[in-house]
Amino acid sequence: MSDETFSGGCLCGQVRFTVQSPTLWCAHCHCSLCRKAHGAAWVTWVGAADSRAVIDAAAGALSWYASTPEAERGFCRHCGSTIFFRSSRWPGELHITHASFDAAIDRDPSAHVWWDQHVDWAEPGDSLPRKPS
Ligand SMILES: [Zn+2]
Ligand SMILES: [Zn+2]
After folding, report:
1. Among 20, 85, 104, 130, which is least packed, fewest CB within 10 Å?
2. pLDDT tens-place string over residues 27-70
3. Whole-number pLDDT of residue 133
4. Average pLDDT in the 114-133 region?
5. What spacing in Å lies between the alpha carbon of 64 and ligand 2's midpoint?
6. In this structure, is residue 31 part of a structural domain?
7. CATH number where 68 lies
């Protein structure tokens, strides 16, 4: 397994991150919370082990919003980019939006999750499995 490092960040660049391969998983989330938080039909997440992910943010730039009692979402206070998710449901993992990476990573999305909450005005053009949650 190659030892690659993938970088990314927010729109303004005050919140940056690096992830060392391998990442853990990648999936499209269709839940209503992701939809509202990101203003998008669905959000593509990459799971990374905390031990392989480093966040490098300017002082005060990164804020966390508790979207449920168990989970919080990290975003840039300056440009509003929504980048991170972490939850006691997935201890030891940092979830990062695929779109926030600067370039390709080590895996492609493998599934649609929370499909039971998907919108009917946008249709994925793939044949990946569609899981209820
Ligand atoms: Zn920013
Ligand atoms: Zn979601």
Report:
1. 104
2. 999 999 999 999 999 999 999 999 999 999 999 999 999 999 99
3. 82
4. 96
5. 16
6. yes
7. 2.170.150.70
Residues lining ligand 2 (ion), CB within 5 A? 29, 31, 34
Ligand 1 centroid, distance to 42 Cα (angstroms): 21
Residues spanned by the domain of 25:
5-117
80: in domain:
yes
**Cα separation of 102 and 88, whole Å?**
28
Residue whose token pair is 């960040």: 9
Number of domains in the chain: 1
Burial of 133 (0-12, 13-18, 19+ CB in 10 A): exposed
Which ligand minimizes its atom distance to the CA of 38? 2
Q: What pairing do the DSSP bridges indicate for beta strands 112-113 and 25-29? A: parallel
- Predicted TM-score (pTM) of this structure: 0.96
Cα(58) to ligand 1 centroid in Å equals 9
Please report whether residue 123 resides in a domain: no
